[in-house]
Amino acid sequence: MAIDLAVWVMYFVSIYFAVFWMTVILDNKIKDIPAKKSKKAIPKVSVTIPMFNEENSVIGTIESVLGLNYPAKKLQIILVNDCSTDNTHNVVQNFLKENKTRLKDFDIRYINHKVNSGKGVAMNNALKISTGDLFVCLDADSFVEPDALRKIAPYFEDENVASVLPLMKLKKVKGFALNLQYVEYLVNFFLKKVMGLLDCIHVTPGPFGVYSKKILQKVGGFDTDNLTEDLEMALRLQKRNYKIIQLIGAKVFTLAPEKMKGWFNQRNRWYKGTLINLLNYRGMFFNKKYGEFGMFHLPMVLSAAIISIFFAFFVMWKHMIKPLLGKVYDLSFINFDVVHLSNVWVERFSFLDINYMILFFTFIIFTFGVAWVVYAFKYTEETFTKKGLASTAMFMVIYPFFLSVVWLGVVFDLARGKKQKW
Amino acid sequence: MVVEKKRQFFWKRHILAFVITLLIFSVGILLGSKLSNDRIEFTKTDIERQQVEYESLQLQLLYLTGQEGKNCEVLLNTLERNIYDLENSRIKLENYIQGQEGGDYQTIKRDYMLTEIRYWLLANEAKEVCPNDLATVLYFYETTDSCFDCSAQGYILTYLKSIFGDKLLVFSLDVNFNEPMVQILKENYEIEELPTVIVGGKVFSGLTKKEELINELCLFYTDASFDVCD
Questions:
Q1: Pick from B2, B14, B25: which is nearest to A160 by CB?
Q2: Which of A27, A343, A356 sits opposite B31 (nearest CB)?
Q3: pLDDT tier for residue B100 given thresholds of 50, 70 and 90
């Protein structure tokens, strides 16, 4: 009985979240609002590329920075090798040597860590030697679009702006896991854009997240012991009431895990980090000082996690897996002769056997899902191909289960190794 | 410098979202209650019809008693069809009841139980008046989780029904149901374990495999030829 009630609350809360953001979508122009440009609008920028075993992708990443439509004199490139165990060091050194003439206008620095110290430390070391007004993190598996920095830089004229984020898309879409992530990225970044309209961004991802260096230094740089230092940074900036802006016109492309297991592991780390950081910042929850972000957004992120876990435990287990196992057990006694049975079932069927209340709620939630995907494609200027349509259909069916399994894994990990990291 | 400006909370938008959500929810709840009413209405009408059919059968039987097997065909046909309908309705009812604890359903279910027993008695009487090769099966079950195998036994009986069709009359009784008549039958057959299936007079306790039941049932069907009985 209590569980039934919880399921209803879950339905209500989920629909409420969906409705709330839908009103924001319908009420606003989603397109980027151009920043007010003044004359001095070309600030000096330090792009940091932290590297850990990225021998295959790092040159492409560096090339994408060199290809930025931005004056070379205004660009500093800081490469931090965090003690890679592969050939990253040599690959980068060779590249720098071979392209000496081409690179002469750029201020390129190379930091070589003797011990692996994590992305946070790498970023902070880069921050110490950076000369730019803006500080950028570009993961070594990501590739920035030439126009991105030009589009992003002017927003920092506003001194309250701490970070401006580009739209993240997948570099390559091939295979099952990547096709699902393709839709995931579109929807998630579209929603981030929408949430940004109400100053509700809680993560500043590694691929070309641009920061105001002054603010970054003022808040004390990156956390060096964090599963998701980009999420922690966003929470810290929000706590100090700085602005974070999400753009959809500026783009960065990234490589994603190509196998389901890789995807699962990455999300496991992200969501574990999310949960731990949210708990560390619990003081912001329901705190009027932080407006929409504290009063609604953070509680929503946590509720969504709880709903996902709940969905995994009760809905998936009680209403899907357990009955399915039961059916298999039952049918095993008639040697799975469903053909015979189906005759009886067809004869017995009547319209009233359909629970159209559940059908209605499923339909509503499904409709919101479809609407988001359609909007996401529209505003990120992604064309709807047949393949995209198939991916979307698969995504809508699989993703809720995937999320639940990921969250289950997170809960399991945290319960098992509570001591390790809190 | 950071200006300590107050951050906004869009309470009007939240009220709007809440109202819309409430509307959507109300529609869902209304649909749910309509569904529940429709189902109750349907089962109520159905059981009333079953009871009228029963009276008709009872009259037929009364009239045919002592006529030494003449004109039995109509009676047997009606009996077969009605028991089949009744069992289908009962299965429907059990599905509808799941997750519902309304008083309406309890009364309706009681009606179904009693009607099942009436038909069972009638079928036994009919056997004396009109000799036939119908096999009657009494099936004792419960709907709580404590009877793990009841649903499997249900599948097996449905499966047998799909083989033997009208020749097999299944009467299902929920022993957990607070109905004295069911309790009397339970004690009479000394039911200790669930599920229990009674074929003719033979008691099969616990989950009984389909092969075992088929063997027993085939003893009844001497005239009709079923492949499984060979």
A1: B2
A2: A356
A3: low
Please check whether residue A324 touches B, CB under 8 A.
no
Backbone angles phi, psi at B141, to 5 degrees: -145, 175
State the pLDDT confidence band at A351, using cuts at 50, 70 and 90. Answer: confident
Confidence category of residue B96, pLDDT binned at 50, 70, 90: confident
Instruction: List CB contacts of A203: < 8 A, sequence separation 6 or more.
Output: A228, A230, A231, A234, A274
Which neighbouring-strand residues pair with A48? A78, A137
In the 8-state DSSP scheme, what is residue A316?
Answer: I
Q: How many CB atoms lie within 10 A of CB B5?
A: 9
Top-confidence range, A23-37, A179-193, B215-229: A179-193
* pLDDT (0 to 100) of residue A108: 94
Rounded-to-integer distance, Cα A296 and Cα B9, Å: 8
Residues in a beta bridge with A137: A48, A209
Shortest CA distance from A21: residue in chain B = B17
Chain A residues 292-321 with a CB less than 8 Å from chain B: 292-296
- Whole-number Å distance between alpha carbons of A374 and A396: 12
Band of pLDDT at residue A387, cut at 50, 70 and 90: confident
Q: Least CA distance to B8: which residue of chain A?
A: A291
Architecture of domain A31-272: Alpha-Beta Complex (3.90)
Of A94, A272, A293, A263, the closest CA to residue A195 belongs to A293
Q: B84 falls in which pLDDT band (50, 70, 90)? A: confident
Domain ranges of chain A: 2-26+293-415, 31-272
User: Which ipTM score applies to this complex?
Assistant: 0.88
Burial-class residue B28 by CB neighbours within 10 Å (0-12, 13-18, 19+).
buried
A414 touching B (Cβ < 8 Å): no
Burial of A73 (0-12, 13-18, 19+ CB in 10 A): exposed
**Distance between A58 CA and the closest CA of chain B, angstroms:** 37
B20 and A337 in contact by Cβ < 8 A? no
Strand partners, A12: none
Query: Number of Cβ pairs closer than 8 Å across A and B?
Result: 110
Q: What number of other Cβ atoms are within 10 A of residue B111's Cβ?
A: 18
